[in-house]
Amino acid sequence: xxxxxxxxxxxxxxxxxxxxxxxxxxxxxxxxxxxxxxxxxxxxxxxxxxxxxxxxxxxxxxxxxxxxxxxxxxxxxxxxxxxxxxxxxxxxxxxxxxxxxxxxxxxxxxxxxxxxxxxxxxxxxxxxxxxxxxxxxxxxxxxxxxxxxxxxxxxxxxxxxxxxxxxxxxxxxxxxxxxxxxxxxxxxxxxxxxxxxxxxxxxxxxxxxxxxxxxxxxxxxxxxxxxxxxxxxxxxxxxxxxxxxxxxxxxxxxxxxxxxxxxxxxxxxxxxxxxxxxxxxxxxxxxxxxxxxxxxxxxxxxxxxxxxxxxxxxxxxxxxxxxxxxxxxxxxxxxxxxxxxxxxxxxxxxxxxxxxxxxxxxxxxxxxxxxxxxxxxxxxxxxxxxxxxxxxxxxxxxxxxxxxxxxxxxxxxxxxxxxxxxxxxxxxxxxxxxxxxxxxxxxxxxxxxxxxxxxxxxxxxxxxxxxxxxxxxxxxxxxxxxxxxxxxxxxxxxxxxxxxxxxxxxxxxxxxxxxxxxxxxxxxxxxxxxxxxxxxxxxxxxxxxxxxxxxxxxxxxxxxxxxxxxxxxxxxxxxxxxxxxxxxxxxxxxxxxxxxxxxxxxxxxxxxxxxxxxxxxxxxxxxxxxxxxxxxxxxxxxxxxxxxxxxxxxxxxxxxxxxxxxxxxxxxxxxxxxxxxxxxxxxxxxxxxxxxxxxxxxxxxxxxxxxxxxxxxxxxxxxxxxxxxxxxxxxxxxxxxxxxxxxxxxxxxxxxxxxxxxxxxxxxxxxxxxxxxxxxxxxxxxxxxxxxxxxxxxxxxxxxxxxxxxxxxxxxxxxxxxxxxxxxxxxxxxxxxxxxxxxxxxxxxxxxxxxxxxxxxxxxxx
Amino acid sequence: xxxxxxxxxxxxxxxxxxxxxxxxxxxxxxxxxxxxxxxxxxxxxxxxxxxxxxxxxxxxxxxxxxxxxxxxxxxxxxxxxxxxxxxxxxxxxxxxxxxxxxxxxxxxxxxxxxxxxxxxxxxxxxxxxxxxxxxxxxxxxxxxxxxxxxxxxxxxxxxxxxxxxxxxxxxxxxxxxxxxxxxxxxxxxxxxxxxxxxxxxxxxxxxxxxxxxxxxxxxxxxxxxxxxxxxxxxxxxxxxxxxxxxxxxxxxxxxxxxxxxxxxxxxxxxxxxxxxxxxxxxxxxxxxxxxxxxxxxxxxxxxxxx
Lengths: 862, 306
Hints:
Number of helices of chain A: 26
CATH class of the largest domain in chain A: Alpha Beta
Largest sheet of chain B: none
CATH topology of the largest domain in chain A: FAD/NAD(P)-binding domain
Strand content of chain B: under 5%
Largest sheet of chain A: 7 strands, mixed
Distance between the termini of chain A: 86 Å
Distance between the termini of chain B: 66 Å
Oligomer: heterodimer
Number of domains of chain B: 2
Largest interface: A-B, 77 and 64 residues
Number of strands of chain A: 45
Shape of chain B: elongated
Structural class of chain B: mainly alpha
Number of helices of chain B: 11
CATH superfamily of the largest domain in chain A: FAD/NAD(P)-binding domain
Structural class of chain A: alpha+beta
Helix content of chain B: 55-70%
Helix content of chain A: 25-40%
């Protein structure tokens, strides 16, 4: 567009209005921004693609309790927000949006945003799109100055000086593309499965959403729906195991039909035509529910000229301290900016409008939280550091934080803590659990390398990091670390550290290098210095190994050494044609040293028990290192001798008790399959002793608010060894992966627990591959045990029925469900109640290293 | 609103230093209740019994051994204390609390010390039995101990069978499987003639999973609805086969009835073993309560009326 034309467009206000602010998306962030703009009297338009406000929250299930965390954060939005039912929250917002005079445009889906001003010199957006086959396309867009033209799906255009993108991360559902996919009886969501009856319904898509919808529709036979689930592939690889099982059970019960390897060809009123493996099928169909996943909004956002921090799937847009993206005048707030909590979003909506309106001195709402974090740190008298000064100080002094922006530092600090350690103070102890990373801003820390002699230490200087082994492997701390002098240390939570690694690639590389070096030093101790390892590390490669994949094969030649960085391995040897389980190798150990020392072929197979990361060290530089360091060679020889002894022991057993060794291998493999390989502490039940009294469940409920966190009877069994449905406290807990309020932590004794800030979203329950998290509400307190024992009052020991709870607590039905899981009875002096309460000794809690050892063989010999 | 309440767990938990990082003491040994702590309680009980017998044999009170001698009083006091303490297992197993204790240890002590009561109680009596409240207390004690012995035998043998029978199926799933088969039977019976449908109804309506008390105890379910239906349908199917006119619908019904019979058998074995594991308690516990009452009567009568 030429300059003259543009002036014409801008001047012609009759055809196109140029708003001061266009807000895309009417979720908590967008709505709050629009209401604040309206209050300030700024010309604005709020664009919403559906016909109602806050679509994501509208889609929450009926009556869902919406939580307002973090509670210590003040709400700045012009809209009110309190924890409560979905309907109440939405009601308030709708009312207040209307009374604030917000200019809302419904059914306005924005398809593109492009600057109409001059090209900005040197500002080119590169968009790389990766295809499934591994190739990629690169497209370049020249950024142009504001005002922006927002093109809507219906072709209409809107002009605005600034754009606030508040579109969340849900993205748009993938739509049916076959003929008839736009008919009114084709829907892409299901609010209330009980709303339909006597219908022939086809659910398209075999992911969790599709399966849950389909099961919901056929759950009540009285609804009399004929439900068919259509899936493109033969299995349901993308769905949770529990969902697939429930689906298969429903099929076996005749409540649902499944059509796998089937795609939709056409939809017409009353009928659907499908392509099956055996040809075309036309069937009666009153309703189609398409749940085929959604396209993440990244493509659209990048198309607007907004750059993301990295190629990582989890990366967020690069933003300034005022939420401005790399496209000048386009601001990003809310979940898309990396803030999934409603309160954060609403505050950002307010703040971003203030920034746009020129109030650049506004302090973010989290300022008091950060202030509290920096309070108590030593400062030069007379020059008080502000929060911004502290953030800048940390960013500049800790090397891995150098690449962060001011806004990233703010958010990063919310998940981190900073503390002064006096000289000699212990920061963490050897064998303490912990997965956080520490950065030294000032001072120096000392690593106690020899647990028997505290005086032998290795210093780590300011600017560097420590604790990275715990972060990467999830294992307990390898050494005690204390402050060498008065030091200011930042403790970075695992979540914040992972975010940092995905946002700042340089930080990720640095952490990997340090991990490799330190794990080598820690494993091989024997007087090594970092300088000795330069050659070895230069050739080191980090590799990810799938569960079950072998890194070393028996009989092959090879002299690479592997250090297991995360996950765990099992060592097997083929004896008499059968793979016999030899050993379990946890993260932090190494395998393959025999090849370097003896040069002989590998004498056992090592394969991953769970998905693992290994560091592969080439044999050649390692051999040079061994030649230079004879102590190291001795140490490896010792280690090798003990491994050879174990092999010989098992081989000797094989001759005398071949059944015992088979059983031992069988049990070990079974436990590894059950995820014991990634567990840190797992409950096992010896079914030779279990009388089924369920006292473990009762004890669990009685010590945890009346809700049991374990299901004794469910779960897999092998050779009378039962793995009940109960938390394994994984090294890298799957449940922690996506917790909006960050309420899941690893506690001081290694337990993974959920704190009271849980918002009940159910993400952790869906993410847990072992199905050990349940969503439930706390029942009222039971009468005293003796009054039950003597007078029969109350439900007795164990979990009360929901019926009883409802009767004795009027508020029970309205209570919010929260995620509950095993906390390993942390804080109870006696340890896990399930084990204490087992009358026969059937229930034991073990760590895999403890249990997957030769001791297992004694069990079978008894 | 709970989420807004003060932080119970607090941020204090985040600090990972000091003694607090040591996990709570716990019993990780993989031993059953009989061998708890390498048979500590078995040893104590044996020592106690041997000591009691030795003193009993070595002393020679006049006129003879009975509850009134100093040994008799000692054994009586010890025995009463043990009986009261052992009976508290029922309370102990229901009060979990947060303090360290091992219910397995309690069970182990309960079993072994309970057995030693045979020696202690009998020596206390000095073998003077008669038709009185004193012998009643002894007799009740023996009933409790013998029923307990029965229970221990069951605890030692049944769990393995229970586990083998159950496989990886829960009780809930067993019952659900039977209901599923019922639904399939109901669907498969729709096209049948009234007379044949009546046979299927026999299985659907006159089949009781656990059955009557007699069936449960005997394990004989031959006249249960499903077994009758299966027998009648099988007869018709083989008659059809002999006549060269196989009826596919009936064969399907027969197949479903057979599967249901197998599912019923598994569920019944499960319920039967679960019941056995609890049944002995219905003697053990009431007898214990009776024993405590008789013991009270015995002690009172001795001190008040002797």
